[in-house]
Amino acid sequence: MRTVGVEEELLLVDPDSGDPRAMSAAVLARAARAAGDQEENGTEGNDSDSGEAAGDADDVFEKELHEQMLEFATQPQSSMAELAAEIVRCRAEASRLARETGCEVAALASSPLPVQPSVAMGRRYRWMEEQYGIATREQMVCGCHVHVSVDSDEEGVAVVDRIRPWLSVLTALSANSPFWQGKETGYQSYRSRVWQRWPSAGPTELFGTPERYHRRVADMVATGTILDDGMIYFDARLSPRYPTVEVRVSDVCLEPGTPVLIAALVRGLVETAAREWRAGREPVDHSVSLLRLAGWQAARSGLTGELLHPATMRRAPVKTVVRALLDHVGEALSDHGDLDRVESSCAELLAHGNGAQVQREVWERTGGNLREVVAECVRRTQG
What we know:
Blueprint: E1 4-13, H1 24-40, H2 57-60, E2 61-63, E3 69-73, H3 80-100, E4 104-106, H4 123-132, H5 134-137, E5 143-149, H6 153-163, H7 167-174, E6 179-180, E7 183-184, H8 190-195, H9 210-222, E8 236-238, E9 244-251, H10 258-278, H11 288-301, E10 306-308, E11 315-317, H12 318-336, H13 339-352, H14 355-365, H15 370-381
Antiparallel strand pairs: 1-3, 1-4, 1-5, 2-3, 5-9, 6-7, 8-9, 10-11
């Protein structure tokens, strides 16, 4: 069974005001001290008294582009139940570390409150700030990246080619960024629009072979516009570090169960695409222009309006499009034992709303109080 790993980016906020706090260095230092304490006590990961995240704390958490953000990465998992438990543990550990340094964590894909982001120290981040200017300084958005194992680059490229039309549906399901710099944006996932400012971001044309994929990456790096292959920000790419396909279209999700849904769907898409490739089925050749429109529509509507149907690239009700996705990956989900979990989670989201809808509901109920929005999201981050 294919393994799945999840990376989540969390926002660090003031416990009283909800304003983003540039505290990532302090939180990471606290994580390193906690890992050192575990080693001195002869305990590691799940053997610790608190039952916290698997692995040493300083291995789980990483700094991000901005000092108001904290990232964690799960271990590769075959079981969605184990992945769900690890996400809960990592979020709880992130919350504990943040509180010990005077802040809180919130699974917010963008800050509802105004903020002047602080770019983290490091040669790479300074290069990005010099190269991209204000786009780097404003790029304080939190995503959820899903890695699914593949057997080879050949299989990976076949997967990347075949999952393209379905990725916008994941953006709609995960949408969790309706506010930006103190303003209502009119979008459900404004993070995805901000993300498109990177020159290498977005959907891709069909590659066909690993050679064409790697040639395209090499040509992009050779322009000097990006620093290296780690800055290939395709919606779906071959990971430069792991034998995985990495899907990067989702907002960080408010409730801890939603990234598990996204991970299960991504594994279902990867497995379905690999089976189609082995069966000799050609990928659907939608243009990049149409895929960009599908991504925009998903960011605008989320689960509250129409989406572009991945098969036809024409407008259709959200429930119809989500149902089409479930039907498309249904056999793979069933084979993985994920079908009931995914069906139930999708029904829950469609009935009660995703993070963007929760944020808007709090905003409307409190008369536009964005500090209350942040406070509610802090409460919901751990479930």
